[in-house]
Amino acid sequence: MKRYKGIIFDLDGTLVNTLEDLADSVNEALEKMGYPVWAVDDYRLKVGRGFRNLMENSVPQELRGDDEVIDRMLQYFVAAYDRRYLDKSRPYEGIFAMLKELEAGGVAMAVNSNKRTDYTEKLIKKLFSEIPFVGVFGERAGVPKKPDPFSALELCSMMGLKPEEVLYAGDSNTDIQTGKNAGMDTIGVSWGFRGAGELKENGASYIVETPSEILRIVFSDNGE
Prior knowledge:
The chain is of the alpha/beta class and about 220 residues long. The chain has helices at about 20-35, 50-55, 65-85, 95-105, 115-125, 150-160, 175-180, 195-200, 210-220; strands at about 5-10, 15, 90, 110-115, 135-140, 165-170, 185-190, 205-210.
């Protein structure tokens, strides 16, 4: 019997490279506010904890506690991101083929993101319309964000599986902590926004360099 019967994926930096569209949208908001902008690579450490947190980490240091500034930034950002979210965002190489193999093998799949739910659902619908995800969760009102395990465990329940039968895959410390908090083995993907070092430091069960390595983990009898 195979050890893993389901897998929950993070979205940004795991399934889809959304960095440039996010960076361009935040920089547009910063320019409208008259603040300095950041290089695209600077956003690798800023994304992953929701839009408001992204704004707080992008404005000048002395303004990060100013709710009025953050609220206005958020308005400008959302207006910009609504136009841009599919400009440059694409699945990472090999992701679609991996998902189709998982589907063919009867593996249950879901998405758990800290991105706002409407954009999470839009991106999945546009880029992965053929993939039968059991559930697609983004940031939801009244539901704690990752690394809280609430959504991961809800998805696990929707799959009809136990946490030990489900893998949690993501590119950041937040994802590894989410999986651990849910009692799931974790896969850290090194192609994302943070890199292998952060994933190793946070104790990922597996670290992979290509999507095909995920298939080997899932379809081996012992997960090794």
